[in-house]
Amino acid sequence: MSQPSRPMPAGAAVVGLALLIVLGVTAAAALLITRDTARDGAAERTGAARTPLGDVRDLTAPVSPFPALPAGPSSPARVVPSSLDRASASVRLTPPHLIAIVRRALTPAALDGISALRDVRKVAVADAGAIRFSTATLNLLAVDPAEFRAWAPKAVAREPEVWDALARGEFVADSKIAASYLLKLGGEYATGGGSRLRVAAAAPLGLPGVDGLVGKETGRALGLLPGVAVLLHTARGKESAVVPRVRKLLGAEAQVVPVGRAAAARPSASAAPSPPSPPLVAAAGSYRVGRPGSYLELYKIAAARVCPGLSWTVLAAIGQVESGHGRNNGPSSAGALGPMQFMPATWKAYGVDGDGDGTPDIWSPYDAVPSAARYLCANGAAQGGAKLRSAVYRYNHSWAYVDKVLRIADGYARAYS
């Protein structure tokens, strides 16, 4: 006859329960530690909290092997960027007759008031400001290329490369400024903020006091003031009547300057102004990397060609954190896409056609990797040190992300030295 079973002492039950909890936590930690590192970038991008286990794991700065790249098209679906209309016939020009500059952003009430003025037909608002550009200080407007194209002189509106360049985040200089400062088309020049701008075109903009144009996002990165420039298209011959009304709405400190036909009609203006020179556009192809056979080659070529001075290991580290070198291309919960996890608005400004197939494709590594190099370089990454850290921070606004990327970059440098 078997002995009757005895209940487990309370102390033993507690010990057993504690052991089960420890084993459970250990198993969960092991699962967390083995997660694909590519998911960390998405978590940081959406603001998800980082766990202590994640921080411990990050200290090891693991490096992932580089996968081969496909010989054929790499994207599951192509994202067609919002292209600017290339047919000049479809662009209905409304050239500015007045430009007003104010000290602070135009209020909605002031904008409504200007739009409601008699003889004012159309109004556009732009960001503006002065930046240090190479050895000069230039006054820039930051505009939406699709919206601003109708405000440009006819010859400039007809040149699609001017507007494509603005959408890519490049600089369009006024023709006279480009000649005065001997700006080289296709050259990249340092700005006062430590970034660099490529001179994509020189065009006769016809805007007094405006030395060049950039896109809206580039303007924000340069620190231009939002909403301080106002362009007005008026009824013919009514410009002088509109000026005092605009000044009354904007205040005594506002500058209101005639443009185009209004400027030519002033008594002090030359009776026979010389015709404007046609736009000059830089040759494309500065960001071409071809179609190398592996991510390792692609990172090395992109860094060397697009951003000399930037180590390929930084590109590789970002590629690992963001997508595991193309293994997890998103979209993320924040809407980031592709192997380098670009937000669509940033891609519009910085995306390039790296393999020369005619379309900058956010899903293609051949386009995304040189685009990432371009974005980093525009923010001073090639200068190393604090500038490099700042550029990586701009890629993903988290200092923990910066530390992680640079640790992984060091790991690649040791592994592939």
TrEMBL record:
Q: Which SUPFAM superfamilies does the entry link to?
A: Lysozyme-like
InterPro entries xrefs: Lysozyme-like_dom_sf, MltB-like, SLT_2
Which GO terms fall under biological process for this protein?
A: peptidoglycan catabolic process
Q: Which GO terms describe its molecular function?
A: peptidoglycan lytic transglycosylase activity
Where would I find the Transglycosylase SLT domain in this sequence? 332-384
Return any one Pfam family short name: SLT_2
Q: Spell out the Gene3D superfamilies in the cross-references.
A: 1.10.530.10
Q: Which PANTHER family match?
A: LYTIC MUREIN TRANSGLYCOSYLASE, MEMBRANE-BOUND LYTIC MUREIN TRANSGLYCOSYLASE B
**Protein name (Swiss-Prot/TrEMBL):** Transglycosylase SLT domain-containing protein
